[in-house]
Specification:
This protein starts with about 20 loop residues before the first helix and ends in an 8-residue tail after the last helix. The protein is about 55% helix and about 5% strand. It folds into 2 domains: about 90 residues, no CATH class; about 35 residues. It is built from 6 helices and 2 strands.
C-alpha cells in the first residue's frame, strides 16, 4: 500500500513497497524502461534529469515545458541537468542564463578565454599543444635535458 504524499514540494515520493529502498526501486524501474525502449540505463537516468530540469523550468516560467518539448525553444541537456542539481536560490540565475544565453559568464560560454583572446575549443587545444612543443624545443635546444634531443 502506498503512503499519502505530504504537501511539501521537495519531498520525494516514497516507494510503494515499504521494504524496498527507493533507490533500488528507481534503479529497477530505470532498467525496465531501458529494456522496453532498447536504450541504456544511463540514457534513462539522463533523460530523467532532463525532465526534472524542464519541470523546474515550468514552475519558474509557466508555458516553457510545452515550448521546450515542442521544439519551439531549444535547451542544452547540460543546462537542464545543472538546473536539476541546483539549490533553490541558484535556480533563478540558471533559468535567466538559459533564457538569455548571451548573458552567460565567460567561463560557461562555448569560446574559451586564452591569453585574453576568445578562441574556439579546437583553437585552444592547438595553441596548448603548440606551447608544449615550444617548451620542449627550448628545453632540448637549451641543453637543459641532456640526451633528450636526437
Amino acid at each position: 500500500m502506498s503512503r499519502p504524499i505530504s504537501g511539501r514540494k521537495n519531498r520525494r515520493r516514497s516507494c510503494q513497497i515499504d521494504t524496498i529502498p527507493p533507490a533500488a526501486a528507481e534503479a529497477g524501474v530505470r532498467k525496465q524502461i531501458a529494456e522496453q525502449n532498447n536504450v541504456s540505463e544511463s540514457y534513462v537516468a539522463r533523460s530523467e534529469k532532463f525532465m526534472r530540469g524542464i519541470e523546474i523550468m515550468e514552475q519558474m516560467v509557466p508555458g516553457m515545458q510545452e515550448k521546450i518539448l515542442s521544439g519551439q525553444f531549444k535547451v542544452r541537456d547540460a543546462d537542464m541537468h545543472r538546473l536539476d542539481r541546483a539549490d533553490f536560490p541558484d535556480r533563478k540565475q540558471i533559468v535567466h542564463e538559459i533564457l538569455h544565453p548571451e548573458d552567460r559568464s565567460a567561463s560557461q560560454s562555448s569560446c574559451s578565454h586564452y591569453s585574453g583572446i576568445n578562441y574556439s575549443a579546437p583553437e585552444v587545444a592547438v595553441r596548448r599543444i603548440q606551447q608544449g612543443f615550444d617548451f620542449l624545443a627550448r628545453l632540448c635546444h637549451g641543453g637543459t635535458i641532456k640526451g633528450a634531443c636526437v
